[in-house]
Amino acid sequence: MLIPERDITTGIYVFAIFLLLLILSDSALANPRYSSIVIDADTGAVLHESSADASRYPASLTKMMTLYMLFEAMEQRKMTVDTRMPVSTHAAAMPQTNIGLRAGDSISVRDAIPALIVRSANDVAAVVAEALGRSEANFGRMMTDKARQLGMRSTTFRNASGLPNFEQKTTARDMVILSTRLMKDFPKYYHYFSTQSFSYKGITYNSHNRMVRNTSGVDGLKTGFIRASGFNVATSAKRGNRRVVAVVMGGNTAAARDQHMAQLIDRSFNQGNRSIQVASNSKDARAVAVTAVKVNTPTPALKPYPEQPKVPESIVTQQYVVPPVSAQPVQLQKVALQLQTNDDWAVQIGSYHEPSRAYANAQAAARWIPGEIVVTEVEISNRRLYRARLVGLQENQARSACQSLTRQGIECLVVRS
Question: Can you give the pTM of this predicted structure?
Fold first, then answer.
């Protein structure tokens, strides 16, 4: 039986398109170093992830932790921008990229910060490490300890720069935690991450981070590359009232990495708009607790949670919204809760002996998820406890929020309010 020539041509055309699609399909499928994650900065909700918990080499994303430690020292008044840090023989011997520091020199914190962000200077990273940790090896241990405190459970640091070390590992999820904490913990220093150039001893250095120049809404963070890692980038972008934080690791080229990151950011913002108020440590937090949130963004399908076991408890005696924690004993403020029928779900953070601790833990959780902080006084087995919840959520919001908190190392339960 003869096959019409037109059908043969059509078949060849379809087959060619199929091959082309295979060739042009996401390079991540064929790249064992690839991983990525995008989160909503206000809620911690994961908007996209691919191999986000796979072990990767951080490369110069490591310097974000070096900067975190430096900013923390400045907040603790152990250093100022005018503090000068000595350059050792070890620091001066660091390979490119660097700014050519020489043993016996010194560099100010004011110059060190843009040198780390713009130039990604390995010699400056070693200087900071020795200034804060006496030796770079000890500073690596300090960085790892800090990572654990921040909930970065899969990260180990061995140096301050990200230069090759087979024991220095992280994940995309841990790097997005670090990126977010840099913004939230040190808001007055975050602007440094958008710096595009700086000059030192008559030489002007330009940033490797083209995302800030080329992608709408991007206002900072860091790139990184070693051969073992591929091209990495951590990015934050704000459009309207929404901010997302994203990490891409293992790009085959800097251009491909940036293009992929831009696509992820666009896709995340296009998922929908929302208006969110988040609890904070600001002076206004005493007057207004977080309101229930209406989310229009499609929520990813979640595996059903088993029903939580009911713990016998006495009738609730009082229900409170608690003001921010201070050095003074907390005075509970009684309020009436008015929740809509479809917003009667909550994320329970825990039960505590002190109301101030209950509020503090709920406030820490509110960095990652929306909801109104409510502390309830209950009696369980003749013990008076203070139960911390974030209320006013829809069921899918509560379940997604609890998943996000669990990833940050915060235990929680999804319950009916």
Answer: 0.61
